[in-house]
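pasting for the record
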Amino acid sequence: MRFLIIFLLLITCASCEDDVVVKPHAALRLRFPTPVYSEVKMDCPFVFKQNEFAQVSVNKNCGVKVDYPNMKATVFLTYIETDRTKMDAQLIEAERLALNHQPRAINIPQSQYVNPDKKTYGTFYEINGNAASHGQFHLTDSIKHFVTAALYFDTKPHFDSLLPAIEYVRNDMRMMMETMEWRGNK
């Protein structure tokens, strides 16, 4: 009996050995195509350059939808023909729309954009955190044109997971903003 107990104890101890398995280093690697920009063809009072990777659609009111189907991301641009008397109210509203994300955002850095040659002036908002939108901007000529843009993903917002895609689309949004020109102002 003692022999059987010692034998079972030895088998139990010998069978509990962990095999060492070396695991490779792993990291999520999202690859997006190198952006190639071209001017969007549309019959609206403004034009801009957009990444050819995205699909652009324009409605009759010059609202533009820029889709990134592989990322499930969309940038919505809204055009408003305005005048100087309404400009302040529209600037306040555009800022309010961006800052409404503060309860869910970690921070919302803003950067001013001024290009007197193209008569474009605006603000870009990087919305960091698990907010619904991750980037917005507004752009105007301070006289009669006003454009707002907002980036949304068709998924639950997980900022850390979406960050590579967010940065990619934000760069495209900056390109839209920096290349936007008002027709008739050239």
